[in-house]
Amino acid sequence: MFYQIYPRSYACAGSSQGVGDLRGIIDRLDHVVGLGVDAVWLSPVFCSPQVDHGYDVSDYYAIDPIFGTMADFDELLQAAHDRGLRVLLDMVPNHTSDQHAWFTAAVAAGRGARERDWYLFRDGRGADGAVPPTDVLGSFTQTPVWTRVTEPDGTPGQWYFHLFTAEQPDLNWLNPAVLAAFEQIWRFWLDKGVDGFRVDVADHLTKDVDRNDVRFGNDLLTHDADNRTHEVLRALRSTLRGYEHQPTAIGEIWSGGASYSSDDEFPQTFGFPILKAGWDAPALRAAIQEVLADTEPVWVIDNHDTPRSASRLGPARSRALTLLMLGLPGAACLYQGQELGLPNVDDLPDEVLADPVWQRSGGTDRGRDGCRVPLPWSGSQPPFGFCDDEVEPWLPQPPQFAGFTVESQRRDPTSTLELTRRWLGVRKQLVGAGFQWRDEAPDRVHFQRPTDTGTIDVLMNLGDTSIALPPGRILAHSDPKPPDGWLPPDAAVWWEV
Ligand code: BGC
């Protein structure tokens, strides 16, 4: 069981800028331990200009001062391990920051230099090279994927490719030097005892940037002819194998995870299809079936890139889908705040929006800040214990977060927090359990998990009327009150026979 920490927004022990930090995580580690998860995944804490909040790395060997020091990280790792909690880092191999020494060297070295080959530089089209090499649009802002540099002699120069913002130049993974550099980075962190990586944009590493028959960056799933991303992933897997503590890696692959997860490539990939399926029984069943057939999933319905399910689906459905997901075979991941039923904040004022998507889309896409608002820990007004009272959190928390604090939910056995804690406890009974579909009616998702000692049924009601429950012992329920023989709409339940 994983728990995703988005460090900027988890807890802040010292920053005057209201940004969460590593010491804040150490101080609040017992919250995660108390939930009963096995591992945390930290969104990137490496040195970064923070254009994309850490997904633009300028030094993979150092901790960004905004989050603390390497000593803080070592202490966090030790504290987590002492509590039986594993720690995964967020590895960002598709691109670096434009402030990374590899990129500044590539620009400084000039056209044709070996350093340029670490990235994807091309000459422009037209007599003076002023037209970008292709017309493709990028992944999250739908703006051009090419930016032109000024050559060392001051003339307008080549263009470099970036799937995301211009400050995130893509690496050239067909250059063996890039792989060698990353193998060293992986080993640096694994030698420290880190338990593995969540791998960002894991299926886009090698791509054919010269193609002009795709209009939008995500279509760049059209790789280089041999799709050498597989070679990269095999190298990562073999690096992991060299360690006795059995580190893992989870691929961030939004579709087609199966082709990258095998004994040689990703041990685990995110089960995103259930996040995308919506509130629709046949679509959910198909999503589950697709993932189970092919991969070792880490099921997920919330993360730092997606509006929170408590708002996307509504609080009751979000709890129900979380409970359903926890009943599926494989691993699962909760995103910080999901255990509180935290809503998305959709009415952040324009002037505080900090996601590059907002600015880069010219204000047409509000971006992902709504799911990244700092957690409410205690008290009745902002900053709700997230940081010192005199400091303003980097994104403002709405007054209604008062009803969602960890402190208030701890006292309430019917709260989402206490329900989640119970679900995670019961879930331990499912280790090694089988899986079989039950009823395929259009208003429900229903499956069974045979265990050594009995059978656990998992049922979610997507219809408009209550469903009669057969006799059995209720183990977990998504509504604050246990069902009394009937499962109401928008609820899920586990029972044992
Ligand atoms: C991460 C995003 C990030 C993007 C670029 C994604 O898949 O999860 O938060 O903006 O990669 O690194």
Topology, pairings included?
Elements: E1 2-5, H1 22-27, H2 29-35, E2 39-42, E3 46-47, E4 59-63, H3 70-82, E5 86-91, H4 101-109, E6 121-122, E7 146-150, E8 156-161, H5 176-191, E9 196-199, H6 229-241, E10 248-251, E11 268-271, H7 273-276, H8 281-294, E12 297-299, H9 309-312, H10 315-326, E13 331-335, H11 356-360, H12 406-410, H13 416-427, E14 436-437, E15 444-450, E16 455-461, E17 467-468, E18 473-477, E19 486-487, E20 492-496
Parallel strand pairs: 1-2, 1-13, 2-5, 5-9, 9-10, 10-11, 11-12, 12-13
Antiparallel strand pairs: 3-4, 6-8, 7-8, 14-15, 15-16, 16-20, 17-19, 18-20
Helix pairs in contact: 5-6
Helix count, DSSP H or I runs of 4 or more residues = 13
Largest sheet: 8 strands, parallel, barrel
Question: What's the structural domain tally?
Answer: 3
Known CATH architecture of the largest domain: Alpha-Beta Barrel
List key phrases describing it.
17% strand, Immunoglobulin-like, Oligo-1,6-glucosidase, domain 2, five-stranded antiparallel sheet, single chain, eight-stranded parallel β-barrel
Descriptive overview:
This protein is α/β, with parallel strands linked by helices. It folds into three domains: 2-94 and 176-410, Alpha-Beta Barrel (TIM Barrel); 101-161, Oligo-1,6-glucosidase, domain 2; 434-496, Immunoglobulin-like. It is built from 13 helices and 20 strands. The protein has helices at residues 22-27, 29-35, 70-82, 101-109, 176-191, 229-241, 273-276, 281-294, 309-312, 315-326, 356-360, 406-410, 416-427; strands at 2-5, 39-42, 46-47, 59-63, 86-91, 121-122, 146-150, 156-161, 196-199, 248-251, 268-271, 297-299, 331-335, 436-437, 444-450, 455-461, 467-468, 473-477, 486-487, 492-496. An eight-stranded parallel beta barrel has the order 1-2-5-9-10-11-12-13. A five-stranded antiparallel sheet has the order 14-15-16-20-18. α5 (176-191) runs parallel beside α6 (229-241). Residues 52, 55, 92, 164, 200-201, 252, 304-305 line the site of beta-D-glucopyranose (BGC). Residues 52, 55, 92, 164, 200-201, 252, 304-305 line the site of beta-D-glucopyranose.
